[in-house]
Amino acid sequence: MESFLNKRNWWIAPVVAGILSIMVTLVQQQWLPDYGLAALLIIAVALGSAFYWVYTLDKQGLWWALIPALAMVTLLVTGIVSYFTPKDASGSSPYGVITMGLGSAIMGYVLSHPGAKQVLYFIAIITLLVGILMLPINLVWKIIFIVVEALLIGYLIWQTNRHLKKR
Predict the structure, then answer these.
(1) Cα(54)–Cα(16) distance, rounded to whole angstroms?
(2) Helical segments of 58-113, H only
(3) Chain CA centroid to CA 25, Å
(4) Which among 76, 57, 73, 45 has a CA at the least distance from the CA of 11?
(5) Residue 3 has what pLDDT?
């Protein structure tokens, strides 16, 4: 007997995880306002696991499901970093923004689809640039970090384009 959750019905897992996430958000906002990090943890794990499961069903045909799965990991780590690091005057954590940029770069590196790689590298460049500019450090260090970022991500883009031309 064929399983109910199979390649044809892959969409059920993300929908159920999405409904669970909405319920967790509503409960947290209504009755547990001090537990935002715990809610983020539950939501990111639920959605990330659902999309990773979709990816494992058909790694070639459903390759795109790895993007939201990795995005949930990135958001989870970003939320944890933002929660535990100092905030600027606006209440934002530059370290959280940098974590998101690093997560985008790592996602681009992990994915095998060239178009997705390029988009995530572009997101990483912008996010890291904003995070570095937000850091409460001397201008010289900001310039050094931006140059290092440009060199590293430029190298990744160059490698991606080089592998595309070999095909």
Answers:
(1) 13
(2) 66-84, 94-110
(3) 19
(4) 57
(5) 61
Where residue 135 falls (left for φ over 0; alpha for ψ -120 to 50; beta otherwise) is beta
Q: Which residue, among 28, 131, 119, has the nearest Cα to 78 in the 3D structure? A: 131
Q: Dihedral of CA 13/15/16/20: which sign?
A: positive
How far apart, in whole angstroms, are the C-alpha atoms of residue 111 and residue 92? Answer: 29
| 97 half-sphere exposure, CB direction, 13 A CA radius | 18
Angle at 94 between CA 137 and CA 66, to 5 degrees: 135
| pTM: predicted TM-score of the whole model, two decimal places | 0.86
Token representation of residue 22:
């909405």
pLDDT tens digit string along 112-154?
888 888 899 999 999 999 999 999 989 999 999 999 999 999 9
Name 116's Cβ contacts closer than 8 Å, sequence gap at least 6: 64, 67, 108
CA dist 156 to 30, 124, 134, Å?
44, 11, 24
Query: Is the predicted pLDDT of residue 1 greater than 70, yes or no?
Result: no
Name, in order, each residue with C-beta under 8 angstroms of 135's C-beta and a sequence gap of 6 or more. Answer: 94, 98, 141, 142, 145
